Amino acid sequence: MKKKLLLTGFEPFLNYDVNPTQKIVDAINGTEVGGFVIEGRVLPVDFKQSAIDLLDQYKKTAPDAVIMLGLAAGRRQITPERVAININEGPLDNRGYSPENEPIIKDGPAAYFSTLPIHKMVKRLKDAGIPAAISNTAGTYLCNHVMYRMLHHLESTNSNIPAGFIHIPASHELALSKPELPSWPTVHLIEAVKVLIESLVESS
Ligand code: PCA
To answer: How far is Cα 17 from Cα 130, in angstroms, rounded to an integer?
Structure first.
């Protein structure tokens, strides 16, 4: 049986009218990359619902790897995240909720490290001519939230599949309404995500 990879992105949020991660997931969903069949899912920017949808899709798919994507408006590189921390904090989500200093899992560990081969991913991207760097903070908003929840679930169920989160820069499409943002063509973002997936295959 073919290996499966769960690839998630997010819907638009705050005052960003486009979320490039949604476009990437829609473009790659159902295709095969690096020997993985891609199962895509776009998550709501909603503290109460995002991880429910994520874990629901995880259980349906039973993937061999999980890569979650989010927009980091203002970043200039593809940034695999090293760590997710046990905190929800940030501006209003799409349901109108704004947590402050709230644990994601009460009495859960302070943090989980990504189990993706983040150094190898950065190297493969750079070798392909794509700017990339490891990030040491995924923030405390939805991206950190889903990364923590996914890794917590895998740890709690003794699963050792590779899983983690990658933040990406804005697309030109988003920069049309936010010209101050550094931006990339969507096709380049899609290409970068394919390299990320391929580097996962090489490391397994
Ligand atoms: N980026 C936000 C949430 C959704 C997204 O694409 C974040 O970095 O938390």
So the answer is: 25
Q: How far is the CA of 194 from the centre of ligand 1 (A)?
A: 20
Whether ligand 1 lies within 6 angstroms of the CB of 42 is answered as no
CB 4 within 8 A of CB 33: no
pLDDT digits (tens, 9 = 90+) for 42-57: 999 999 999 999 999 9
Q: Is the CB of 71 under 6 A from ligand 1?
A: yes
Ligand 1 neighbour 44 (Cβ under 6 A): no
What is the Rg, in whole angstroms, of the alpha carbon atoms belonging to the chain? 16
Q: What is the DSSP string of 63-103?
A: -SEEEEEEE-TT--SBEEB-EEES-B--S--TTS----SB-
Q: Hey, which residues are catalytic here?
A: 81, 143, 167
pTM score of the predicted model: 0.97
Count the alpha carbons within 13 Å of 129 in the hemisphere toward its beta carbon. 2
User: What is the tens place of the pLDDT at every residue in 98-134?
Assistant: 999 999 999 999 999 999 999 999 999 999 999 999 9
